[in-house]
Design brief:
alpha/beta; OB fold (Dihydrolipoamide Acetyltransferase, E2P); Rossmann fold; 3 domains; eight-stranded mixed beta sheet; 22 strands; globular; binds S-adenosylmethionine
């Protein structure tokens, strides 16, 4: 028979395979008939039966149906929402193995994209694996056919909200309130017009910020105040853009803050401001960054993407002077207030867009500095790094939330600017997620 005329065999919807490695987003990677397949819920070394979710030209996506032989690092995921909720992707992997996988991902990106290898590896920075999330954005959806309101993180594969009764990675004070929050939103006059609730937890108080798309009725305000009073949680309302947030309960809501006790610093923040998610890991990250920068009393330092001064103010305690640069004017104002509140007189803050590579003059002007700290968003810091003077600062500490851009920027620092990548390591800022936070130290040759 002419083989071209043969009917194509139907593609099976399920198959069994052995998982070879873990992808950077926490899925098991296997090959079936030579084609890569990324399998949710599967771990390296395991034999699994999986179903195809979709097929692409160069790879397929699947989800594990049955673990035929579990790998040595598999553990039962403690959260009943694991798998459905998009918040965590690695609860089924032993925490130490999660950290190993993150270090491996970092090493691969540095080698592959950056063409660099750290001279030494820093010990991983770790903190509590549960109850660590002090900032979160919860979604809310009114689903009348289910008889109510869902509150939680986005579901893993869909745009739905995974309805959570509790969340073991969320600060316990807030996790314990999830069922009551659902009931509260359902009791408001506009349950379908409250798309999100932001969570912020400080050392002494916690806050919830309700985004509302229509004006709230007096009775709604009463319900929200009563909720705040009953659960001792500040209630804030956001009727429009970020600057519209206002406190509802208590009348005089005290400012939230967290402490950096080793440096005798308190960082005050508004409930929607950026703060590092994991308090314990942040404290260690600040200590490690400062130890690596090795600041002396005659040094000057620059802190790019400085936010509220989380690294700037501890650095100010150790150097002659430090300049922090940040795009968001509200955070720059907050950083200045934090400097004043902590009696720090040698830190200056400036607002500037550090991705604006077109500007001929760098936003730090002609300031010369000995030490540089970088803590950019996922897009990295290449634009700012390219504006560095020559010779550049003696030491650079780079805190990264995305190894791909850290690797790209390392390639430039090492191969174009003559720095050594003296050390690098991961920080477990977001246990049970595939998010890789890391720190790298560059030393001028
Ligand atoms: C990862 S956060 C770090 C903040 C601070 N270092 C901390 O530890 O809290 C990144 C910061 O970069 C700021 N940012 C984002 N885009 C920026 C830009 N184009 N120019 C300057 N800063 C920017 C954000 O507002 C945010 O404060």
């Amino acid at each position: 028979m002419n083989p071209n005329k043969m009917a194509a065999a139907p593609t099976p919807d399920a198959a069994a395979t052995t998982v070879e490695s873990l992808s950077h987003d926490g899925r098991g990677v296997a090959h079936v008939g030579g084609k890569a397949v990324f399998i949710e819920g599967a771990l390296p070394g395991e034999e699994v039966r999986f179903r195809y979710l979709n097929r692409r030209r160069r790879y397929d996506n699947g989800a594990a149906l049955e673990i035929l032989s579990p790998g040595p690092d598999r553990v039962p995921p403690p959260c009943p929402h694991f798998g459905a909720c998009g918040g965590c992707s690695l609860q089924h992997l032993r925490p130490e193995a999660q950290i190993r996988a993150k270090q491996q991902a970092l090493a691969e990106q540095l080698r592959g994209i950056g063409k660099v290898q750290p001279e030494s590896w820093l010990a991983p920075v770790t903190g509590p694996a549960w109850g660590y999330r002090r900032r979160a954005r919860l979604g809310a959806r009114f689903v009348p056919k289910n008889g109510g309101v869902l509150v939680g993180f986005r579901a893993r594969r869909r745009s739905f909200i995974a309805n959570l009764d509790a969340c073991p990675v969320l600060e316990p004070r807030i996790s314990g309130l999830l069922p009551q929050l659902r009931a509260l939103v359902a009791a408001l006059s506009c349950p379908d017009r409250i798309p999100q609730i932001e969570v912020a937890v400080g050392a002494d108080a916690a806050a919830l910020v309700f985004r509302h798309l229509v004006p709230l009725a007096d009775r709604d305000l009463e319900l929200l105040r009563a909720f705040g009073a009953r659960h001792t949680v500040q209630i804030h309302l956001q009727g429009g853009g970020p600057e519209s947030v206002r406190a509802l309960w208590p009348d005089e809501a005290p400012a939230l803050f967290y402490r950096l006790p080793e440096h005798d610093i308190k960082i005050y923040f508004r409930p929607t401001d950026f703060i590092q998610i994991n308090d314990q890991v942040n404290r260690q990250a600040v200590a490690q960054a400062i130890a690596l920068l090795d600041p002396g009393p005659r040094d000057t330092a620059l802190d790019l993407f400085c936010g509220l001064g989380n690294f700037t103010l501890p650095l100010a305690r150790r150097v002659q002077g430090v300049l922090g640069i940040e795009a968001e004017p509200g955070l720059v104002e907050g950083a200045r207030r934090n400097a004043a509140a902590n009696g720090v007189a040698n830190a200056e803050f400036r607002a500037a867009n550090l991705y604006d590579a077109v500007s001929a003059a760098p936003p730090w002007g002609d300031l010369r500095f000995d030490k540089l700290l970088l803590d950019p968003p996922r897009s990295g810091a290449i634009e700012a790094i390219k504006l560095l003077p020559s010779p550049g600062p003696e030491r650079i500490v780079y805190i990264s939330c995305y190894p791909v851009t850290l690797a790209r920027d390392s390639e430039y620092l090492v191969h174009a600017r003559g720095y050594r990548l003296a050390a690098a390591g991961v920080m477990d800022m977001f246990p049970h997620t595939s998010h890789v936070e890391s720190m790298a130290m560059f030393v001028r040759e």
